[in-house]
Amino acid sequence: MADQPAAPATNGGAPALVEFADVTKRFGHVRAVDGMSFAISPGRTLGMVGESGCGKSTVARLVLGLEHATGGTLRFDGRPYPESDRGLRELRGQVAMVFQDPYESLDPRLSLREIVAEPLKAHGMWRGSGPGRVRELLDAVGLPGADLGSRPGDYSGGGRQRIGIARALACRPRLVVCDEPTSALDVSIQAQIINLLLRLQDEHGLAYLFISHDLDVVRRVSDDVAVVYAGAIMEEGPTAAVSADPRHPYTQALLSAVAGLSPDQRRLDRRIRLGEERAAAPEGCPFAGRCPAVHDACSARPPLRDIGGGRRVACHLVSPGRPAP
Amino acid sequence: MTANSGSVSAGAASTGPARTGSEGQPLVVDRLSVAYGEFRAVTDASFEVGTGRVLGLVGESGSGKSSLALAIARLLPPEGRVASGTARVGDVDVTALAGEALRLARSELVAYIPQDASAALNPVHRAGRQIAEVFRLRYQLDDAAAQAQAVRLLARVGIRRPEDTARRYPHELSGGMRQRVMIAMAIALRPALLVADEPTTALDVTVQAEIISLVRELQEEHRTTLLWITHDMGVVAEIADDVAVMYGGRIVEHAPARAVFSAPLHPYTKALLSSFTTGRLARPKAPFETIEGAPPVGQIPPGCPFHPRCPLVTDRCRTEVPLPRGSGHRVACHLAEVTPDG
Amino acid sequence: MLARKIAVRVGLAALTVLAVIAGTFVLEFVIPANPARVVAGPKASSQVVAEVARNLGLNRPEWQQLLSYIGGVLHGDLGYSYVSQTSVTSLLAGRLPATALLMAAGIVVELAVGGALGLWDGLRPKRSWVLASVNIGLLSVPTFTFGFLLLLLFGYVWPVLPVSGGLGAAQLVLPALTLGLLGAPYYAIVVRDQLREVLPAPFVRTALAKGLTRRQILHGHVLRVVVPPVLTMAGMDVALFLSGVVFVEDIFAWPGIGQLQVQAFSNVDRPVLMGTVIVAATAVVVMNLVVDLLRLVVDPRVRAESL
After folding, report:
1. Which of A186, A213, B60, B236 is the most buried (most CB within 10 A)?
2. Model's pTM, two decimal places?
């Protein structure tokens, strides 16, 4: 990759908490993550959006150290990701995860107390302040006065998700990976959980990697957003800029497929239609098979190129300053 | 039903009332209640959908929307039953049917598209065969003719290589393609009423757009009456002529789509719309508008089902169930202002 | 792709059989008898015994004996019976058809009775205690008890069936019933559970929504999905049968491999014993392979799995 930056620029000048440089993860023949480079800054939210199978869940697992990358460099706090079990355990004290399914991610036989205490005990933070911390965490997530002996089954989807968030925050992580945290929830509950996440970020200076296929949600919670297709980042930048002026054909297609606001503002008829997958050259742009603007140059893979304003786009048709095709 | 224009094959014949022009029939639901054992999932639902029109039925979990849809399609599980009320498609009361008449109604009158297409297709039959089955049994076509019709329909629902897809098994198809197969099966039945139960909820946004466009197109072509269930106001905006909002098993608002979006009357509808539009428009990191509390699961509160979460709640709301008022724009709320013509 | 899967399965089966043969050889050293002594007779002098031992090749190192045994087996030579001095292979070959016939009859009874029970219970809207009681009753009775009971009832109390043993259609009835009835509960449960799982499934609802008749739904949609687990069970059943067959053939004097095995055991006729073990184990492996391959054909989802 000729002009691939070694470490992507981070906003605010603060050193990145997590840095991925040209990271690849293969499962057999399949490249789930195909040369991704991005950075997560402390206290900020990077949103990752893409359709099912695009590799975003694999990214989450890589960030948590649950998978080892096949290639590329991964750094946490400036140092390479640990390989040893001990190093990984320490890492997991600083990176936590909120899962998609509040029904599957909590052990139904454990009590609230046990669920939230578990990470504290695992990281040697239980003695003394532990029990108080459990109560403090549950208060913080909007379950004040909850019965510590109760079980996940006593709570609704939103309540369980709050428990999951309390558990994630137990060891005061610096980064929380949210993998579709609201997809399994009702619309009115989704809003509550998002607000909770935003408030907690404010109060504790958390960084978030927010993964979702829901464009609306990602747009609202992220400072920066990365649009992912087939394991590669197509476009990345500040959320407002990317939403208002998408440059990559895939981003444009995604945004055009969003439903209108009212019957008078129907817009699906005018959406950009993507073809069914045509065979794409393995060394070319991963999106070439479906891109409406594909041409000869696309048989070579476009690097993720800086186009100014903190934005990067991987497309031959886009260069700094040139308007969207 | 005699074969009408653009029909399946010359010589296809079946019995039943003749349908000319549009295939759709009006749907009239009158105080329908659906129960599972002692629990009422739907209480006193009343609404109408005119021939060839699209009603968007909106609600969250526990609202009863799926139960209502299944009841109208007569596909409730054994534990569920229609506790009271009727649902008429044209002049047939589908809730009163049984035995052979019910089977015929299922195959000729009402078609159902479920949310999860992967579970709804038989895993050991090829896709083409599952569609062809309709043609073999309903129109008495032979295997080859039925298969040919199945392929034709697959092409109609936007599948690029229909012969190839017809030979595949469901697990070999993507989510979007499976849903198209379900749609093909449904339109093969030429139903008077199509009930679509959240068919795009599990799909990616681009695929969702394709499916919505497709269904809209087919609905317009055949003038089928369409009942589309969803929790997503955006989908409603794109497809519905009329909207009915459900909460806690009751219909709390029912009006033409434009009216609901521009001037909602029920506090729940207002809250849903507000969070929908601000969700789309506001800048990043701004808090979402929320409705405190959660939708009722299991026990439905007395009085107005929404009262525990309603900012305008009064004592009357806690004890007395509000009945729908109004004519063109109906709302079930003690406090809503109902204009003389709405 | 399919050919590769088949080849893998066949290869694994062959390896298993080889391992069985080698493992059986361990019997050689576990059974507390000196084969040379058995052949020579209790009165022979130690010199004669030593001579016999040399003739039988028992002086060679163990690994050599193992290798020559395996080599022999692969050529179809299973040694010679100490007792009857006939080749084990021919002894087994003579008996195998009878056992196979009995097993086939037993499986037919199992599938018929178990399938009927399972269908009946599975199609009912509510659970009933009848199936559970019948199952518990049948599962609690040991094979030999049940066999003797049937023999008593239908051979002596109501003498409708022969008690003399030997091959014959009438003689087949009781042993087949013994094996079959005792195995029926497993099938009843599998069929019933499959039905209870499949009937509420969304794709059955789809079939209903298409306006198919109950019979069309049952035959066209439900049974196709119910059959594969039943098939798998039938294949695994061979192993169960082969252990039950020993009792049943002995009780009813059915001239199959089981009866041979019992006789060989009391005579400490090691080659015959080892031969029966190998044949039985091979039969199990082969049946499992057949069932595996059948499932590839019947259930397309299995074809998609990676191995």
Report:
1. B236
2. 0.82
